[in-house]
Each structure stands twice: as structure tokens, then as C-alpha cells.
Amino acid sequence: MVTQFTFHRSNLKFNTSIKKLTPTMKIPTLILSHLLFLLIPPPFHRNILAHAATGEWDLLLSDIGISAMHMQLLHTDRVVIFDRTDFGSSNISLPDGRCRDDLNDTALQHDCTAHSVEYDVAANSVRALMVLTDVWCSSAAVMADGTLIQTGGFNDGDHVVRVYKPCADSSCDWGEITNGLAQRRWYATNHILPDGREIIIGGRRQFNYEFYPKKPSERSYNLPFLVQTNDPRIENNLYPFVFLNVDGNLFIFANNRSILFDYVKGLVLKSYPAIPGGDPRSYPSSGSAVLLPLKNNSAAEVLVCGGAPKGAFISANNGNFTGALNTCGRIRINDQNPQWVMEIMPMGRVMGDMVLLPNGNVLIINGAALGTAGWELGRNPVLTPVIYRPDGPVGSRFEVQNPSTTPRMYHSTAVLLRDGRVLVGGSNPHTYYNFTGVLFPTDLSLETFSPSYLDSNSVNLRPKIILPVSHSKFGYAQQLDIQFSIPQGIVNGAPVMVTTVAPPFTTHSFSMNQRLLVLGGGNVSVVGNSTFRIRVVTPVSSNLAPAGYYLLFVVHGDIPGEGIWIQIK
pLDDT of 345-376, one tens digit each? Predict the structure, then answer.
């Protein structure tokens, strides 16, 4: 059976061409959902699927030993991945006869298996790492020198700060600071601040925030907004969405509300309207959110997509699995009178991940169509990623991609790699590792999704950066001369732009510190045969880009080349 549908927003008509449809066949759910979209009144923007499915999937490793609940790409092109400790042994042993002895562990106090690994992208291999205390549902951020600072977790890990200093060989491993936190942090959110420190916000039954490292006499500070957005029955304001605004303050979204917060003075500077519909979007409703690409000092926009509607968590615990939200809300947070603008996704999605791509588009991937986050509470995996084009015409910004064959349910993750692929892993909706007799077995694999800009027909259109060399260091507001080559040359005057991406720490459908800046475009000069130069300026302040390592990309048309690492100091 071949079914084709063309929708026209302007006159709200649709044409169908259906071959071999018998009276006993049911209209597919996707078709019915499109018909429902047409009936939804403003302010929702209806979206037309105008492109054929694209993108490719590749299995990298079928078993990395652990399920990828948390992931962070480092400037060594290695990805630190970890799961939790209080569930028994994993599928990968610690090296050299090492074992983890933890009398507080609730499952296995003498454990010779690893619960963290380092994935080497170039070698496509993993090595076991030693993490002692429980990192379950924790948070993290990368400091200016590239060190991963990871905070909190469960049980004996809830006050712990863990330090991972990247290395070029296999000598680096986790170090732990036992009482590094003032409060227990479980389901908290971390963000790098303009002064280079981390702020750690919230967590289960923690309506406060603190800093790392702390200044003398610093402690934790109350944040009443987290009390106001908390439903004590389900605690649906965990893992709040936090973004550094261009003015140096923090946009914080929890449940269905958001504020602009001056963390220095402890003041709420602005309260935004509740997202239309009033449905919760943060954990366990688990929508996702991104700060859209920053192009100047004033146009900061936040996009929040998917999640589970009000009551879905309680319903799922009673065996009734509610359809996930199919809406996105977009808000310009520095407008004088900010308002949410709502859009309709091609399908509902809870527990999805949102990844900023080098060309400024947003990939929405992983998750389920029914239920919520939580043990065994999701159904109907959504196998098809979607790309959202922020600068596309209103009503046609979404593009459905080719599907995976692997369900990525609760505890899945996705991160951008330097070559433009997206690394995808995780999925373990069970209290322990469970591979048989369940709807969605624990998944220990890693795969990549390659957007269409990596298709073979784009090879000769893909920029290659010649200068600067990788790991070059730059200051703020500094002119940056970039030389690059394009085998086929710049085609038909296609625009060229330069972007930088801050690789985030990703867990539970939110990528902490994810940030993309457009440094400039145009003004391309010819250097030689198929070789060009573009001049841009690095970010003007740490409000725009906190000091640290960033991926630098040259994008030709919609096609980015392989990125290089730069460090902004």
C-alpha cells in the first residue's frame, strides 16, 4: 500500500492519493493526527512535512558494558559515559583486577565491574573507568580548562563532587571529593557561569542552589521558584531547563513556568507567562529544551518541545499511558513583553533529546509516544528523529528523518560529535539491567545518526578548515581569520557562516550548557584554487560564551565541515 498526503496550510485543504486501500484497513494514526492538527486554533502554527525522510543510522558497538544514562564529549574527542552503581554488576570489568568496595552500596558492596567508561571516537573503543559512589541521575559541566566536574547522585553519592581531567592516553580516571556539596543533589541541573564556576540548581526536595567551587563562607541559597513549581505528588520540576542569557542572568524553566534570575543578588528579574496549555515539561514529564543559536546580543530564544501532559505520571503508574505532547513553545526571553509562540511537531514525544547541529538546526531524537519518564512508564518508542529549522518559514520548520530500529526509551542520551554525527546510546527503563522478558530490554549499544549534510553527495561541498589549527586559543572580541577549502568551490553563491558549539552534558532529555553561537558569515575571499578565507570575531564577553573549549565549524550552505577544537580564554 502506498499512501501520499499533501497538506496546504493556506487554504486548509488536503489532497490524498491512496492505492490499494481496502475497506478493512484502518486509517493510520499518523494520518489521523495530521487531520487533528488542522483543527487546532491559533496560536499554534501547523507544520507541513515538505521534505522526504533523510539521515542514516550506523551501529558502532553493540555492547559498551554499561547503559549510557549520562554522556559528555570532551576536547580529546572522547566521550565520558556513566550509568549508576546501586543496581549490581555491569557488563564490563574494571582493569588490572581492581574492584569497587562500597559498604553503602544497596546492591553489591564488592563489585569488580565498571559503571563508567570512556569512549574513544577515533578508535571506536571503550575503556572502563572507576567511579566509586553512586552517580545515578546526577549532573555535570565542563570547566574552562576542559575538566569535567560532576556533582551529586543517589545514596552515598548525593553530596559528592567528582573530577575527570581529560588525557591523551589511558591514564585519566575519576577522582572524588566526598563532601563537595552543601546539599544533596539528585536530579539537579548544572550550568557554567561567566566567572567560570558552576551553579547547581535544585534536585529532589532541594529548593535551592549552590556554586562550585565555593568562595569563602558561601553556602546554598533558597530559590522559592522551585517551591512554587513543585507538585509534591510527583515532583515535576526536576532537572530544570537552565540557560545563560546574554545579559549574564539565568533563564530557568521548571514544570510549566519560567523566570529570569539574577543569581548574584538572588532576585527574580522577570516572570514569564506559563507555557500555553499549562502542561509540565520538566522531569518526569520530560520534554526537552534548547537555547536557539545566538546571532547577536539581544535575540536569545528558548525552544521547549514535547513532554507528558498533566496527570500522565499518575496515570502511567496506574497502567494508563497518555499520549505525549506534540507541541513546542518558543519564546524571545529579552523581549519587552515576551510571549510563547506554539508550534505542532509531526508526532508527540516524551523523553526526547534535542541536539544543536553545526548548521544551527535542532535535532529531536529518542523517546516515546506514550507515558512519562520513570521506571517502566513509557510505551510506543518514537524511532523517527525530526529536524527543526529555526529560520524556516513558520508552519514548515519540521522535517521527519529516517527511523532507527532501536528503541531509546527512559535513560537515553544523544550528543554531537566533532565530525557532525550524533552519538546515541542508552535506554534502560528498569531498576536493574534486564535483557529478557521485558518490553524494552536494557540497551548497552552505541550508534550514530548522520544528518543529510553527511550524505555522500555532499562530499565535494563540505568545507575543510585549514587554519587555525585545532586546539588554538583565542581571547574575547578577537578577529579570527579562518582558511578553508571546498573541493567544488562555493556553489551558486551559497552562504558561508562560522559557528561555535559548546558540547553539553546530557542526561534525562536535557543537555546542560548546550550553546551555539553564529560568529559571522559572508565576506568570503578567495585565497587559491578551491581555498577561501573568512574573517569573523570571537564572542565579545563571557556572558555570550563562558571560557572553555568549543567546537568551531565552517558551514557552506546547509553543509558543515568537520569541526576543530578552540579554547576561548
Answer: 999 999 999 999 999 999 999 999 999 999 99
pLDDT at 524 over 50: yes
Residue type, 330: R
**CATH topology of 56-454 equal to that of 460-568?**
no
Cβ contacts of 464-469, under 8 Å, gap ≥ 24: 464/561, 464/562, 465/552, 465/554, 465/561, 465/562, 465/563, 465/564, 466/531, 468/564, 468/566, 469/564
CA–CA separation, 148 and 174 (whole Å): 9
Helix (H, G, I), strand (E, B) or coil at 150: strand
The candidate with the shortest Cα–Cα distance to 2, out of 15, 14, 17, is 17
Residues in the chain: 569
So where are the chain's domains?
3-39, 56-454, 460-568
Q: How would you classify the pairing of strands 422-426 and 446-450?
A: antiparallel
User: Cβ–Cβ contacts within 10 Å for residue 160, how many?
Assistant: 24
User: Could you report the per-residue pLDDT of 222-239, keeping only the tens digit for each?
Assistant: 999 999 999 988 889 999
% of the chain residues with pLDDT over 90: 88
Closest among 461, 450, 467 to 534, alpha carbons compared = 467
Please write the tens of the pLDDT for every residue from 92-121.
999 999 999 999 999 999 999 999 999 999
| 523 — pLDDT class (breaks 50, 70, 90) | confident
CATH 2.60.40.10 fits 56-454, yes or no: no
* Helices marked H in 366-469: none
Q: Residue 48: pLDDT above 60?
A: no
**DSSP secondary structure, 8-24, as one string:** ETTTTEEEEEESS--TT
**Which three cell numbers, joined as nine digits, stand for 425?**
546510546
Cell reading at 550? 568549543
CA-CA distance, 254 to 236, in Å (whole number)?
8
Close Cβ partners of 551 (under 8 Å, ≥ 6 residues apart): 358, 416, 418, 500, 501, 502, 503, 563, 564, 565, 566
The Cβ-side half-sphere exposure at 216, using a 13 Å CA radius, reads 0
Q: What is the CATH topology of the domain spanning 460-568?
A: Immunoglobulin-like (2.60.40)
Task: Taking residues 457-472, report their average pLDDT.
Answer: 97
